[in-house]
Every structure is written in C-alpha cells, then in structure tokens.
Amino acid sequence: MSTLAHTMMTAARSADSGLAGPGELDRYPYAEAPGVDRVGAPAWEGTDPELGRVGRRAAGSRGRGLHGQLVQQLGQMIVSGDLGADRPLVPEEIGQRFEVSRTVVRESLRVLEAKGLVSARPNVGTRVRPVSDWNLLDPDIIEWRAYGPQRDDQRRELSELRWTIEPLAARLAAGHGREEVQQRLADMVEIMGHSMAQGDALTFSRADAEFHSLLIQVAGNRMLEHLSGIVSAALQVSGGPVAGCDRPNEISLAHHSRIVDALAAGDGAAAEAAMRQLLTVHPEVERVVPAPREH
User: Fold this and answer.
1) Of 118, 248, 269, 293, which has the maximum CB count within 10 A?
2) Residue among 289, 22, 287 at smallest CA distance from 275
3) pTM of full prediction above 0.70
4) What is the mean pLDDT of each run of 10 residues along the chain (295 residues)?
5) Residue 239 contacts by C-beta under 8 Å, 6 or more apart in sequence?
6) What is the three-class DSSP state of 155?
C-alpha cells in the first residue's frame, strides 16, 4: 500500500467538521432588531427534546463549538418544516430553549442568514425565509434536505445534477492532462481498492469524494469547479443505489479506473462515456436518467 493510501485510511477514521471557522463568521451581515414582535413565535416545547441542550450533543454535530451545533439544529428544523416560512425567531427564546448564550444565537443566525434560510431586518426581526430563497446548493442544506421529509426529492435532484455535471467535467478534464493530477486520481482509485478489500467503507467514500471533486476542479471551468462541493455532498448523502459510487464494488472501481486511463490518453469522449457508465451502475438510476445509448 502506498504512503498516501495508508495516511488517508488512517485519517478517515478521525472525526471531521464542515462549518466555517470562527474568523469567517464576521463576513455575514446580521441586523438585530429591538422590540421584535413575538406573536406567532415557534412553539419550542413541541419539538424533539433531544434538540435542546445543544452543548451536550457535540459528538454527532457538524461544525465547531456551540454555534456550529445550533446552526445544525435550527437548520434541520427550518428545512424539515418544523419552523415554517415567515416564523419569527427571537434570539432570547432560542437561547432559553437551547440553553446557549445570546452571542451563540447571534452567530448561528448569521450563518443561517448567509444560507438564505432566515432574514434579519430592522423593526421586523429575524424570520424564516421561504424555500424559494434558500441556497439549495449549500452543502449543509443539501444534507438537511437529504435526511428530512424532502429526502426523496433531494436525492433525485442530486442525481440529475450529477448526471449533468460530471460527464462534461470528465470530458473537459481530458484536455488538462497534468501528470500530478492524473497521479492523484490514480492514487484515489488505489485507495478505493485497498479500502474495499479491507471492508473499510468510510475510507472508500472519502477517496471517492476526493476523486470526483478533483476531477471537476481540473476541468478548466471555474463555474463547474464551484459545483465540486455539491458533488461531494451528494456522495455523502446519497443513501441509496442511485449511482455506482454509492457502494464499494468491483464494477464501480473498474469504471473509476477507466476514467483515469481515458484522462491519461487525453480521450475526452472515453472519459465522458466511462463517467456515464459509472453513474448508471445500478439499474435503479434509470428512474432518474436514461442509460447512455450505444452508438
């Protein structure tokens, strides 16, 4: 096993977080309105009691610190519909319900505002925004939708989006044949093979996500590159046999290898075809998109 494979397989077993660091929170504007109208405020008592006391839920929460955990809780409640559109979010009430400071609440609402889930205006306060205003390409919102009542729609939409993005990215990447990138992609396939042999699904998924993200990043299209995080999120929340990357298997591994070979040969058409085959390894995907036609 290569040093890279060993390092990645070791690192995959450690916990990771996905929220912006403390220094990045100041980028988000937040207007705090005095005298917020409390009529129609959320009935916190009706929610799952496990959503309270966020400070005691660090083990499974995304993000750093209390504000990261509160972002997770409030985001899930908004996306699931527990907190409907135009509902007021009063910082004092949130702080009491979740037993966190006003500073933690304020930082959390800043992040949710940046994601389009809430809006804060003077003399109006903070309110939940309608779905049409959400940043549906935000990885956190993708995750929350994928594990909420909208899970079926989210996974279908992600599959359709991947079908649109990744075959094109594979074709374009063949025209940017940097040796170090091709080697990195080959390393990811090697790691996937080792982890599959050892029954290590976590490492397989990490290497798989890096493979697809890197492929999009080297396509030479900055707008496609901006979407690489969406593909990574899709791989993490797929939760069903909608693409060949969802489960470690020999067929999936072989298609990844064919993509690497096509890139090394500078064959964009072959790389695109291999990616389409990868995305249709499981027959269930045909309910989302048709399998590629043979010419």
Assistant:
1) 118
2) 289
3) no
4) 54 42 33 42 47 36 72 95 92 93 94 96 92 92 88 86 92 83 93 93 90 90 83 68 57 94 94 93 45 42
5) 146, 147, 151, 155, 246
6) helix
| SS3 of residue 119 by DSSP | strand
Give the helix/strand (H/E) hosting 179.
helix 179-197
Within a 10 A sphere around the Cβ of 20, how many other Cβ atoms? 16
Which residue shows structure tokens 């959400």?
A: 134
Neighbours of 172 (CB within 10 A): 19
> 127 forms bridges with which residues in the sheet?
88, 119
Q: How far apart are CA 216 and CA 227, in angstroms?
A: 8
Which amino acid would we find at residue 29? Answer: P
Measured CA to CA, the distance from residue 34 to residue 32 in angstroms comes to: 7
pLDDT single digits (tens) 59-106: 334 445 888 999 999 999 999 999 999 999 999 999 999 999 999 999
Query: Encoding tokens for residue 88?
Result: 């007021």
* Structure tokens that stand for 61 in this block: 């929460």
Nearest alpha-carbon partner for 75 in 102, 101, 103, 54: 54
The torsion of the CA quartet 94, 97, 98, 104, rounded to 10 degrees, works out to 30
Distance of alpha carbon 232 from the chain centroid: 6
Residue of 174, 166, 178, 160 whose CA lies nearest to 289: 160
